[in-house]
Amino acid sequence: MTSIFKGSTFYKYLISFVIFGVLIVALTNALNYYHLNHISKGIIKDQIDFQFDRVENATRTLIGSAELTVVNAAQSDFIDSYLTTKSPDAKENLQRYLLGLARANAGIFQLRLLDVNGNEVIDVYKPNSANSANSANSAYRIEKPEQLQDKSDSRYFAELQTLSDDTTYYSSINLNKEFGEIERPLRPTLRIARPVISPVTGNRAGYMIANMNASYLLGILVNSDKLDITITDKDGFILKSTNSEYDFSRYLNKSPTVQTEIALLREQLLYSDGSVFQYDLDNLIKNDSGLVLYARASQNFISRLTAEALEGAVQSIIAILLLAFPVAFLIAKSLSKTANALQENIEENKKYSSIIDQYIPILETNKEGIIIGCNDAMSVLSGYRRRDVIGAPASIFQHDACVPADFTQLWTNLKNGISWKGEFHNKTAQGEEFWLQTHIMPNKNDAGKVIGYIGIGADITDKKLLERRSEVDSMTGLFNRLKGNHILEQQLDNASYTGKSFGVIILDVDHFKQVNDTYGHLEGDLVLKDVANILKYNVRSTDYVVRWGGEEFLVICPNLDLATCVKVAEKLRVQVESFPFEGQATGITVSAGVAVFTGASTINALLANADSCLYQAKEQGRNRVVSALSKYTAETHTSASDMQKSS
């Protein structure tokens, strides 16, 4: 009995484990099916959203670039000159200008000027080619007069007649025709046009039309290895599809069988069970075609997801059936600990990633400097939405004060595969300035090839503003003496390198002590502020005005010779003498000494020279300009004080 009991107990446990195992397998498969369905829908939706974002960015960029070309061409000085004179020279200049615009925009293969009757006046054209590589490199040409065509009977010309003068026209995307025949190989074409207004009569003189090669745009819109994508117009004709057999069904002859297939596909797209997503292109391609992009997961993609899930399910079933349950329990317990620790790490990483995303500006570009990634911190700091900058050049953030020379070392480093650290002077979408201390490093793929760049920044705007305040005289708002010395050093280095001279003017307010003694220091401060503003607003934008000390001012004039610098000083002297100071003090004048840097000078020698000239100006009666030229030339002015003495 004992042996039987042991045996039955064994079988009871065995049967119990088998039943338990079967239940586990059944539950596992049910959960796998649920998660497969849920995860697959999420993956498919992510692919759809990615494709729609890609469609929007690509369409806005490509069409926007072509539209800008047409508007610039229609409103250029070259076309105004041609319409005004109709001379051969003006026409040749306009042809060259249009040729340059076409070459600058690879998406445009034809740029034409039509007169009001539909006749081609100028035609810049890039021939089609059966070989895509040759087509990309084929040269634009200006069509000879005998090649110019009459487009008055074309549909788009008829539509142009109804266009207002300040409106841009978009045609439907069709297949380009030359001399009445569809081009081979096929060249899908989007025409963008703008009326041309005569500067003489103010009336419409014709139309500027760009033929944009839509092949690349359509290729981007339907290019996906995971989705079936179809673009149709409002009449149900298929413009472009992942199945190229259906492409351009409005313009190409199709067999009855294919037409039936297109009709069935149209029905599936319009009356789907929710698996088809649609995106209206009207806001991106502003014509009356009513283009709609339909996207759904391809059968291959669904099959791949299913196969991967089933493979995982089979592996889990085999593991459950083969492993002993006690061992499985222990393993599960061990894995649970590991998973918990991993989850804690993931949560920790998420926390720090969230902090980085919120507070550390990060920008990612391709090798050409086009933005492909922008985090929240950069978006908040710059005022741009992420979707506004993706696809734009990184220079979208660049402040107007920056010049190309500021980035020479940056690109030298990056092209040599070396990281770069430095400061960027930027502006927000609202036009406000901000600074970033940035570390830019090459982004390499697994093969070690540079595929782009990643910039990690730190906001140093407050620091830069503080530095700027430390460089400015608080009372007059001019640069202070410390900043003035730095500018002089920079000008000295630049002059030594380029061989160009620069001048300095030291100006001193005459009898300023008497102003303070007579009217008080508050009145004296008002005089200094007025003199500072007179100097600031009467010099060039490239000049620097510095409060050098007390009632003394320094003007630094880059790239000026002595004679011109003296004229600047004389202009400033006259402006001060004639200025109606609003306080009690009257008769305010300045004396000035002028000197120019020569290759053998030093800063101290230059300033000493100017200071010596200032001293001579005061010795000679004040309210005058003295320089090394003074001993060779007659006085250039008669001051108010001189006139009083003579009377």
Automatic annotation (TrEMBL):
<dbReference type="GO" id="GO:0043709">
    <property type="term" value="P:cell adhesion involved in single-species biofilm formation"/>
</dbReference>
<keyword id="KW-0808">Transferase</keyword>
<dbReference type="Pfam" id="PF13426">
    <property type="entry name" value="PAS_9"/>
</dbReference>
<dbReference type="InterPro" id="IPR043128">
    <property type="entry name" value="Rev_trsase/Diguanyl_cyclase"/>
</dbReference>
<dbReference type="InterPro" id="IPR000160">
    <property type="entry name" value="GGDEF_dom"/>
</dbReference>
<dbReference type="InterPro" id="IPR029787">
    <property type="entry name" value="Nucleotide_cyclase"/>
</dbReference>
<dbReference type="GO" id="GO:0052621">
    <property type="term" value="F:diguanylate cyclase activity"/>
</dbReference>
<dbReference type="InterPro" id="IPR000700">
    <property type="entry name" value="PAS-assoc_C"/>
</dbReference>
<dbReference type="InterPro" id="IPR000014">
    <property type="entry name" value="PAS"/>
</dbReference>
<keyword id="KW-0418">Kinase</keyword>
<dbReference type="GO" id="GO:0005886">
    <property type="term" value="C:plasma membrane"/>
</dbReference>
<keyword id="KW-0597">Phosphoprotein</keyword>
<feature type="domain" description="GGDEF">
    <location>
        <begin position="500"/>
        <end position="630"/>
    </location>
</feature>
<dbReference type="InterPro" id="IPR048760">
    <property type="entry name" value="VP0354-like_sensor_dom"/>
</dbReference>
<keyword id="KW-0614">Plasmid</keyword>
<dbReference type="GO" id="GO:1902201">
    <property type="term" value="P:negative regulation of bacterial-type flagellum-dependent cell motility"/>
</dbReference>
<dbReference type="InterPro" id="IPR001610">
    <property type="entry name" value="PAC"/>
</dbReference>
<dbReference type="Pfam" id="PF21623">
    <property type="entry name" value="HK_sensor_dom_bact"/>
</dbReference>
<keyword id="KW-0067">ATP-binding</keyword>
<dbReference type="GO" id="GO:0016301">
    <property type="term" value="F:kinase activity"/>
</dbReference>
<feature type="domain" description="PAC">
    <location>
        <begin position="420"/>
        <end position="472"/>
    </location>
</feature>
<dbReference type="GO" id="GO:0000160">
    <property type="term" value="P:phosphorelay signal transduction system"/>
</dbReference>
<protein>
    <recommendedName>
        <fullName>diguanylate cyclase</fullName>
        <ecNumber>2.7.7.65</ecNumber>
    </recommendedName>
</protein>
<dbReference type="InterPro" id="IPR029151">
    <property type="entry name" value="Sensor-like_sf"/>
</dbReference>
<dbReference type="GO" id="GO:0005524">
    <property type="term" value="F:ATP binding"/>
</dbReference>
<keyword id="KW-0547">Nucleotide-binding</keyword>
<keyword id="KW-0902">Two-component regulatory system</keyword>
<dbReference type="InterPro" id="IPR035965">
    <property type="entry name" value="PAS-like_dom_sf"/>
</dbReference>
<dbReference type="InterPro" id="IPR050469">
    <property type="entry name" value="Diguanylate_Cyclase"/>
</dbReference>
<feature type="domain" description="PAS">
    <location>
        <begin position="348"/>
        <end position="391"/>
    </location>
</feature>
<dbReference type="Pfam" id="PF00990">
    <property type="entry name" value="GGDEF"/>
</dbReference>
